[in-house]
Amino acid sequence: MSSKNIFPQDQITRSEMLQSSNRRDWLKYMGASMTFASFALMFPASSFATTNQSLDHISKPRFLGEPDAPIHIVEYFSMTCGHCGDFHNNTFPNVKSKMIDTGKVKFELSPFPLDGLALRAHALARALPENKYFGMITLLMNKQNEWMRADDPLKTLYRFGQLAGVSADDFNGLMQNRSLLEKIVEMRELGSTKWQINATPSFVVNNKKVISGNKTFDEFSAELAEFGI
Which of 23, 36, 72, 191 could form a disulfide with 197 if both were Cys (CB 3.0 to 4.6 A apart)? Predict the structure, then answer.
């Protein structure tokens, strides 16, 4: 059975999703308020480790770099955003080697899902142990077209989860965890209300400046020049 049939509300337009300020309404837009009876036929009941699905674990900051680095960058991104994929595949490797690994930047990732599939991909990555989070982000961004355009995106997403040790029970339980999905939407709303984020990727630098849009490394460096990079 195709996930496109399971989650028909995921087809709502991006502009309509961005206009919703109510978390539960937005979850309905995302297709996350639907029953998962059809999906449960595909995978057996949940047994995912409770700690990995705790809200504290899901919402704990995920960052690379020294905790006390002078520049703190928070990227708001969507797992199904092509511009985000391009940034992570082509620009971020240089950001990591030239800014993060040199101790200049603490780089944090924060979810800003733009559709139901992105919400579920974020849920998969953030439910993993912290030491597997960035590896999963790298994998899913690198293979973005493969799982997004699959005949059944959720089945393909599950197969990538298997590489990180996620069982069928784990995955099914994760996709049914409404509280977890709501927490990710809440994190999205924080970026929207506090920083007026309305496009991905967007970057908040030292709580002072918002950079919007996909950038080459040279363009990204130029945006950070005022912070001493």
Answer: 191
